[in-house]
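Both lines are retained for reference:
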Amino acid sequence: MTDLIQIMTTAESGEAARAIARRLVEERLAACVQVVGPITSVYRWKGEVEEAPEWLCLIKTRAGLYERVEAAVKALHSYEVPEILAWRVTAVSASYLAWVTEVTGP
């Protein structure tokens, strides 16, 4: 088990996703954020089935930063209920883990 987690969120546009990514990296809350998209999401919202293009953000950070990342994503996000999911990375190369730890601070 490592201290590394990956957090996932989606955004309504590539521009919005890149803004989230840039802010997290600039504030050293994430070592890296990959923006993937567009993707298509199908979901139920307020009793209706919706379909929308979205951009996926894959956020690499330390577990100890989760709450700060969550707060930053919520503050930057346009959605009423943004998707914010995290999972612990169970295996990672030592050099990658060292880099993530270095760039996100002690």
Remarks:
- The chain has a mean pLDDT of 96.
- Residues 4-90 form a domain with the Alpha-Beta Plaits fold (CATH 3.30.70.120).
- The longest strand covers residues 48-62.
- The CA atoms of residues 8 and 85 lie 5 Å apart.
